Automatic annotation (TrEMBL):
Alphabetized Pfam families for the sequence: F-box-like (PF12937)
InterPro entries, per database record: F-box-like_dom_sf, F-box_dom, LRR_dom_sf
UniProt-annotated stretches for the region Disordered: 394-428
Organism listed in the record: Bimuria novae-zelandiae CBS 107.79
Domain F-box as annotated: residue spans: 19-65
Protein name: F-box domain-containing protein
Gene3D superfamilies, alphabetized: 1.20.1280.50, Ribonuclease Inhibitor
Organism domain of life: Eukaryota
Biased composition range(s): Acidic residues: 412-421
Amino acid sequence: MSYDDDDGTNAGQHDRLGVLPDELLLQVFETLAKLGTRKDLCNVSRLNKRYHRLSDATLYKQVLFQTPELHLTFSESLSRRPRRGSAINEVTLAYPSSELSQLALDAHVHGSYIHPSRFDGLSRTLSIMSNLEKLDIAVPSVLLHGIGSLFNGPFDLSCLKSCTLFYQCPNNAYWDLRENIHIFAHPELEELTLRRAKLDEQGFNFLERPHETALKKLTLIECDINDDGLSDLLELPEALEEFIMTHAEEPEPELEESSDSVADYIAALKSQSESLKSITIDSPSLTSRKVLRMREFGAVKNLRLNWDYQLFGKSSKKPRLHSVGLPPELEMLEFFNELGTDTEVNDLLLALIESRSVIARRWKKMIVVEGDETILRQVKATCKEAGLQLDIIGGFDETESEDGETGSGDDGVVEADESEGPESGRDL
């Protein structure tokens, strides 16, 4: 391959790559980056202007900031050549508080055309990435306000499709979502994940409420979110399809804003009842004082909860005036924890399975974990009679016949599977 100072059009006769169109050269360079090293691709980029331009599209497609120093160096590079910012599709900022030195992250970057009062250094760097599609944030909370200002609009990141936000706070505290709340107003964002955020009962102020957004999937990991505040935020997506909320069995620090009832969070989802297809609430500390009524959730196919009593409500001395209302199109119901912790609830679960053909005719599968053998035997028998497939995580792939002989499931209705497939574990 010969060296050429021009744009590659007069490459030497030994430059066989020069005759390829840009689309094929991009594939070649991407393969080189995967099989070789980024240094190899940097060497190729020095051969001529054409290779330099095409190599940038691969070299800067994904950027990982692991230290503040790297961020500042990259900021200066983008200030000199802002065109490179448009080549970046994915950015990950992941460095702990211990890596955050006394660097002036909010200082004006030398040579930058953006006024220093508009954003801090980190936000200023991100704003140059006009074609950014994926943004993962895991940085100290001192950068919370600066990055949050990036979402206040008008949106520089107009192509953003996926975003994860996590700010590391002292004493492992929850960070205030109020500083970044306008991420919910992003018109094109489709997937949003929040980790260890907190929000009180207030959502958007009336005067600043945005229009409908494109959000499809919302994931809340170990967050302290008030159900009323969440309800206000969920009025914005045009058609949310998946909701996931997870927390530890004993949250630390203790939750201050969150409700203690799973029913309150189901109520918060009602504005999206016509579009939601999957609901996962993996929060063992949540209880329920009354049965869930989810007949309005006409599109839900997958429902995952921790306990059976979160669906039915715990036993009480008062008579039950309402039966559980499963989503009418439900296909899969999963419980992450053992069945049978509440005797009355166990009877209600068996009755629900028996009524499957009336309550949820499309209900095909129920997934549970291995637990009390007496309870599981009753559930197995009832599922088999009702034609409902039962998967038991941690159990053996066999069933016991009435005469005591052991064999594999003869009709495929009752299955016990010790493997964890995509729908049978907590791989969210």
